[in-house]
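Anyone else keep sequences and structure tokens together like this?

Example one:
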Amino acid sequence: MNVGVLALQGAYHAHVRTLRSLGVSATEIRKPADLDGLSGVILPGGESTTMSMLLDSSGLRQPLTELGNSGVAMLGTCAGLIMLASRIADGRDDQLPLGLLDVDVQRNGYGRQLDSFECELDVDINGMQRMHGVFIRAPKITRIGQGVRVLAALDGIPVLVEHGVCLGASFHPELGNSTLVHRHFLQLAEASAPATTPPLTHLGSR
């Protein structure tokens, strides 16, 4: 299995490290050709306005959208969640999301840099499990569409959601002490991959 991590801007290195720690090949995506042969794509945290502009200048916006619409698994964390969303409540006119996940988000919904925080989250993946959440200028999910499943919430507000093979997190699972979200994403990617993809048998339970 080969999973791509959008590497135009932002905190993509930690996602690459996490994937490789799980024994999964990780490709850094910088141009359309890097999308070839991927089983899944991670859109990392960073600055969502800059990320949106770089998707256009790199020529990645259309092929990435087509890849997501074709059923390839997608994971968006923090700014990546903003990019996957249907609508950005307070986005600039030139900041266009990909529309692959039926949620609306508010940029910096939990406050600016000084308001960043960490907390424990109860996550509904294979039963309720506990994991550490790192929120850095985190977006807030303000609407979820029909069929979107809430996997974790904070004070009643969704912070981890799933729709089909698309996952979105307001926080940074790659910066916590658990690989739970990444392992779940890899299982979604495996389920959506062609039958020739070798099964994942090595993922642990950290």
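And example two:
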Amino acid sequence: MNPRNIDRRRFLKRLGPGLLGGAMALSMGRYAAAETGHDRLNFIFFLIDDFGWTDLACYGSPFYETPHMDRLAGEGMKFTDAYSACTVCSPTRAAILTGKYPARLGITDWIPGHNRPFAQLRIPAIHNQLAHEETTIAEVLKSKEYACAHVGKWHLGGDPFFPDTQGFDINVGGNSLGHPPSYFSPYKMPILKEGPEGEYLTDRLGDEAVRFIEENRNRPFFLYFAHYAVHNPLQAKKELIEYYQRKADPHARHNNPIYAAMIHSVDETVGRILATLDKLGLADRTVIFFTGDNGGLLPNTSNAPLRAGKGSAYEGGVRVPLLVRWPGVTPPGSVCAEPVTSVDYFPTIAQMAAIPVPNESVDGVSLVPLLQDPRATLGREAIYWHYPHYHPGGATPYGAVRKGDYKLIEFFEDGKLELYNLKEDVGESNDLSQQLPEAASALKQDLAAWRAQVNAQMPWPNPDYDPTRAGLRMR
């Protein structure tokens, strides 16, 4: 007997009638998910790869054209202080699907990661897949007869850890790769049938997502649409590149026509899905999430006014756009400044679907109160990050905590602390650690206590440390 099945049965047993009406139950009138029939909510979760905080017009870009993403903001809620669970992709993806911090999961770098044998610190090993023992939001929804589809990037393990072993009925393109060999067919990717020569991957994934919605219009569904775009390699359709070349200003913060063209194609898939929901009469009972897996990659884009980008401890590495449209619940055009993070989506979707989740199952907090009222608060003390690795962009191992307006970064090589007031200094240009030593010390203690709670693995001094070869990398 498969032990994975035993674990799942135990979990489903815990979701029995005795838990209904508990902390996760909804009392939201006609917007609560019904157990049967066509009133149950559908869920679409867009996850864009390496998508920066300002990579949308509605977040301030004058160059990128994102009318359909902007429509989500106009019809739903925009979050100003949303975060990814990690500064790189695999850990964030694991956190979204399980509601657990990457440190608790043992997935703290992109899979399979890399090693620097002569760096100052030895880095801990990571799990090279999302364990079958972990319960995903797809498995939770599937237990309530949802149709579940994964479309796009997986990057949480190879066979036999593909999406169809983690609760998804359909897997289109999800494999162990972190990026496609090519955005144009032939793609040369496992688990993706080749399209006509020259077909564009972003368009193809949009086709597959629309097909899934159409085929499941008469039952509740969960579409996890994890675009490969806008991750390298930078490749886009010729006519779109030429369009953005004509409007590019070399002195502007956003001026890469290929990157802009890739965003344009992603936005078109959002538009196609919105049009499909409208055509099928599903829009009023479909909740849409739209976010990124980490900060934008420099120099492909600029995250200004945020500091740095993907791989970094600073806001440019972990602050991401987040749009949520929940018709009839989220006030149209609303803006929420409450800090939220990747682990929150699991309990949020579960609550929306009226599926109770035992508190010990997740680290996240349901965002439903915020989606009802953007002025609400979650009562959460802090958000944490743990990245005990080196990044090719230059970042060194670190931990971080945001508590209220303050963010502390602890660099593991030398123990250096940096403290910022993000309300007054979103660009993290004024380190307050020397001016506010007691606050820095208290946050450091909070960070250490959290690491102990989630059993975070720490790096340790490297006996082979060689400053002249510290930057050398190997798999």
